[in-house]
Design brief:
Chain lengths: ~150, ~250
């Protein structure tokens, strides 16, 4: 069983790697600042909302691209939403993938859009895994007696 | 001022429950903000940002719901509901159905025209910012919204300085009804140029995109602290319409 200090170190290192790899950006720090004793689960709640929202949007995007006549306006609207929510939680790479996607929407380029959708999915799955690991580490830390704020 | 609204029974019950939990007494000095955003994530974030700055918050997911809440919708009100007086409205620009811009126009054309309206947008489009300010938006925030943005907003709009808020003709609970006529010409303050990449505007929102990279009213220094004096006259801070009774 790892000690609190070991877990704290692990958590700090993991968090730092997320920023270094640009998976998360400063906006995530903002979110963490909004969490306190009165709202101890704020970050997890927002991120969970993001997961639900994103999965819905990714489905919509796949559906829209599967139509014989692709509605680029609708496509763009969905990507815009995904870009917005990823930006709000600091999921930088997802956000950037969405920006690229929107350029292809503007160009009405189906092939390009399909590639971008895949890219966005990849980035989304990556950030989702990272968040899950992060929350697991945080829970282990807290269960071992650790408390926030650590940063 | 209209204090009625039409709501679905469930919505009303939810809201009443929320109010009961938050504020048994409605006679507080707390600022009540109506936040409008179609995104779940953004609603949750803006709600928290506002609560942490000691505002009471009501969130709705569309412009039409916002109008309903204010009692401005066209439906016959069969249910009396004393909506908490709204001190500020903060709304996303890009929303399906009614955009934030359209909501702004409706509010400014109503008996609620004195309520300050702040627009939020993820897109830094000069033409968009201009048109919102021209329609009477109090301020324009670039998303993602930060705590410092909200604190600054609250500070300069609802500071302890009564004379300043009175001069702005704000619709505060403790002030008497302000005159609805404001003949003074709004002034626009110079902007600070910042290099931000402007993303192409969404067809969905259809606004003309401008190649000029421009930050509307972010404080240029991202490490600015919230206790920085927020003088509305500071030229480096933002563009703002100041409706001062001169």
């Amino acid at each position: 069983m790892e000690s609190v200090n070991q877990l704290q170190r692990k958590l700090a290192e993991y968090t730092a790697s997320l920023y270094n790899e640009k998976i998360l950006d400063e906006q995530f720090v903002q979110l963490q600042q909004l969490q306190d004793e009165s709202n101890p689960d704020f970050v997890v709640e927002v991120v969970s909302l993001f997961f639900e929202d994103s999965e819905r949007l990714l489905n919509e995007l796949a559906k829209a691209l599967n139509q014989p006549n692709v509605d680029f306006k609708k496509l763009d609207a969905h990507v815009h939403q995904l870009k917005g929510s990823s930006s709000s939680i600091g999921a930088q790479r997802v956000q950037r993938a969405c920006i690229a996607f929107r350029n292809y929407c503007d160009e009405r380029n189906v092939e390009g859009c399909l590639k971008c959708l895949q890219q966005v999915k990849n980035e989304y799955n990556l950030v989702k895994n990272k968040f899950e690991t992060l929350f697991k580490l945080e829970k282990q830390f807290v269960d071992a007696g650790g408390s926030f704020p650590v940063v | 001022m209209a204090r009625n609204g039409v709501f679905s029974r469930r919505w009303r019950a939810e809201k009443l429950e929320e109010f009961d939990k938050l504020c048994p007494s409605l006679v507080s000095d707390e600022v009540h903000v109506l936040a409008v955003d179609d995104s779940f994530v953004d609603r949750k974030v803006i709600e928290r940002l506002l609560k942490i700055t000691s505002c009471k918050v009501t969130t709705v997911d569309s412009g039409s719901r916002a109008l309903q809440f204010l009692g401005l919708d066209e439906q016959e009100s069969s249910v009396q509901f004393d909506a908490l007086k709204v001190d500020m409205i903060i709304t996303d620009y890009c929303m399906p159905g009614m955009t934030g811009y359209e909501l702004l126009k409706k509010i400014k054309g109503s008996s609620f025209k004195e309520i300050p309206v702040v627009i939020m947008s993820s897109e830094n489009v000069l033409a968009r910012i201009d048109s919102c300010l021209e329609e009477g938006a109090e301020d324009f925030l670039l998303k993602p919204v930060k705590l410092s943005d909200v604190k600054r907003l609250k500070d300069y709009m609802f500071s302890e300085d009564r004379s300043r808020t009175e001069a702005k003709g704000m619709n505060k609970r403790k002030l008497p009804e302000t005159s609805s006529n404001d003949p003074s010409t709004p002034t626009i303050l110079p902007l600070t140029s910042i290099d931000t990449a402007s993303t192409p505007s969404s067809e969905f929102c259809s606004s003309p995109s401008s190649p000029i990279a421009f930050s509307s009213l972010l404080s240029a220094d991202s490490s600015s602290n919230s206790s920085m004096p927020s003088s509305p006259d500071s030229p480096t801070r933002r563009v703002k319409m100041s409706n001062q009774n001169l």
